Amino acid sequence: MHRILRAAAAAAAGIATAPARRHRAPSWGAATARWFSVEREAMSYDVVIVGAGPAGLAAAIRLKQLCRAADTDLSVCVLEKGAEVGAHILSGNVFEPRALDELIPKWRQEDAPIRVPVSSDKFWMLTKNKAWTLPSPFDNKGNYVISLSQLVRWMSVKAEELGVEVYPGFAASEILYDENQIVAGVATNDVGIAKDGSKRETFQPGVELRGRIILLAEGCRGSLSEKIITNHKLRESGQGQHQTYALGIKEVWEIEEGKHKPGSVVHTVGWPLDMKTYGGSFLYHLDDRQLAIGLVVALNYRNPFLSPYDEFQKFKQHPAIRTLLEGGTVLQYGARTLNEGGFQSIPNPVFPGGAIIGCSAGFLNVPKIKGSHTAMKSGMLAAEATFKALVEGSSIDLYWENLKKSWIWDELYRARNYRPAFEYGFIPGMALSAVERYIFKGKSPFTLKHGKPDHEATEMVNLHSPISYPKPDGQVSFDVPSSLYRSNTNHEHDQPPHLRLRDPAVPETVNLPQYAGPESRYCPARVYEYVSDENGDPKLHINAQNCLHCKVAPFI
């Protein structure tokens, strides 16, 4: 099957392909803890890119542009786990075109799906019933409200026109090493394995994609990227501080015509979050009466009873928000973790055999709430270093060197103190942020450090009281099953669970008695719930079929 896909993609691009080689490799039957040997097809490329988001596709396009300019060629493959490019990206993004201007200068003449300029930019501080207007710090002049999923689909077409092979529907699950322990490729999942680990009639082995250089563009908390960062101690050899995260929960609505203002952008802080929890909301008016609305909650919150999903439903009941949504229809629902460590948490992105790009490395500008432009630029820088390494014989380390000379570095440096300022609480955080922006202008003589890692910040249950959330009304707020229906989540039941506990005893011996089972609340899909066993004792049950792939699971 993989050979057919590869040949078809190559034929469409008008390029020749080398015959795929085959070898035997073991495949793991996880649910039954047994090995069975299968024959996996292997394909060889000059560059393998994991992830068809803004970073991965920008890298692929830039590589092929450099090849054309030098009248040479490198084979480039992009793997995408979604069924189609953009499938795992929920619409609604305020896009800064700086990197795209560099990558495809004539994008405005090439029918790019970037058509709605920001028309207004508001910043509110919410109390329970009021919305107070504050000066907007977001600098969105010249930016656009877009569907990011449409943009990456457009970029995918541009990449394929240049000769890049793009394979949606294939999730990279394993890092491949050569005899010198240099990363030499990735392997995709075997498919057609039953829950008990046995091979079903539909079984097909995964495929190995080997490359001279591997670029990981998996997004925030990418599984392969995290393994590489840990195994090669890249955070320690980078900026040194741990990464800190947030969970973003988003819906896309179709609202009434009279309420729709294309290009209108609103960000809020304050209610419904407590004074010690960092976060905020956004409302972006796209075209076609669509509105992207969401709430971002930092995952270093103290109160174990806090539920980000329910905070989002509560937020939509605010008078200024509910009025906008009433009479509308929810089209989509989704959730995703975000990197919020910024400058202090950037790892060394280069490892033996490749590099990490985009949000896998953590280039989100937190006060801007933007990362697409920095992700794209990082992909371009990595592509330029990759080209020089493969064609001119230099080192991929050039990526790290050039990154520190780029506008990404300058931008994240200027933004470095906003997020850690809120370690002191909401009011001190707002005050310190104002001083940082309006007085020091990002050039303060000090750099604040992040507090505890997120999982250590949660306090024990005896220090907090349960939070009573209002019941969903079915009009602007909804229960989890209704939201899951809108997420188009679909997992086959007879397959090994992709979510596993490192220590199955921890939920019942630590999480439940000490923290009241926070995993049953922080997951925006209710994947984790406590149910009584035959003896009436609570046991953690994992509803893997609900998973939105938000990547919050590693925080258990």
TrEMBL record:
It comes from the Eukaryota. InterPro entries: ETF-QO, ETF-QO/FixC_UQ-bd, ETF-QO/FixX_C, FAD/NAD-bd_sf. GO terms for molecular function: 4 iron, 4 sulfur cluster binding; electron-transferring-flavoprotein dehydrogenase activity; metal ion binding. Residues 245-338 form the ETF-QO/FixC ubiquinone-binding domain. Pfam families: ETFQO_UQ-bd (PF21162), Fer4_ETF_QO (PF05187), NAD_binding_8 (PF13450). Its cofactor is [4Fe-4S] cluster; FAD. Its EC number is 1.5.5.1. GO terms for cellular component: mitochondrial inner membrane. Keywords: Electron transport, FAD, Flavoprotein, Iron, Iron-sulfur, Metal-binding, Oxidoreductase, Transport, Ubiquinone. Binds 1 [4Fe-4S] cluster. It catalyses: a ubiquinone + reduced [electron-transfer flavoprotein] = a ubiquinol + oxidized [electron-transfer flavoprotein] + H(+). Residues 474-552 form the ETF-QO/FixX C-terminal domain. Accepts electrons from ETF and reduces ubiquinone. PANTHER family: ELECTRON TRANSFER FLAVOPROTEIN-UBIQUINONE OXIDOREDUCTASE, ELECTRON TRANSFER FLAVOPROTEIN-UBIQUINONE OXIDOREDUCTASE, MITOCHONDRIAL. This is Electron transfer flavoprotein-ubiquinone oxidoreductase. It comes from Triticum urartu (Red wild einkorn). The gene is LOC125509440.
